[in-house]
Design goal:
Helices cover 34% and strands 8% of the residues. With 103 residues, the chain is mainly alpha-helical. Strands 1-2 form a two-stranded antiparallel sheet.
Length: 103
């Protein structure tokens, strides 16, 4: 069960949000008088060494995963490399430094 905490002011978050709004308004002047309705902050899950974790489940041979903080930039190439492993049954050596068994 999730516990709801009372909403509190976060000056640093408010300053960052205002800075982002100001930067956006510099590119899109119509945003100059816009107000910020809501700010949502999420947690980033990053392995201790900061590198992607790529591999297959030790419990289920048909389950593979890719966990990375750089999904936008690395997603397409990681998907292609993983597809090669899954569809061709080949081990892609370039992925070895990122295998889950390094932990």
């Amino acid at each position: 069960m999730r516990r709801r905490l009372p909403r509190a002011a976060h000056p640093a978050r408010d300053q960052r949000s205002e800075r982002l709004r100001a930067d956006a308004a510099a590119a899109l002047p119509a945003l100059r008088d816009a107000s910020i309705e809501k700010v949502t902050v999420g947690r980033r899950i990053v392995p201790a060494d900061g590198l992607p974790v790529i591999g297959h489940s030790p419990l289920y041979s048909n389950v593979r995963s890719v966990t990375t903080n750089a999904g936008i930039t690395l997603g397409p190439v990681l998907a292609q490399l993983m597809a090669t492993e899954v569809l061709d049954g080949a081990r892609v050596d370039v992925l070895d430094p990122y295998r889950v068994d390094r932990f």
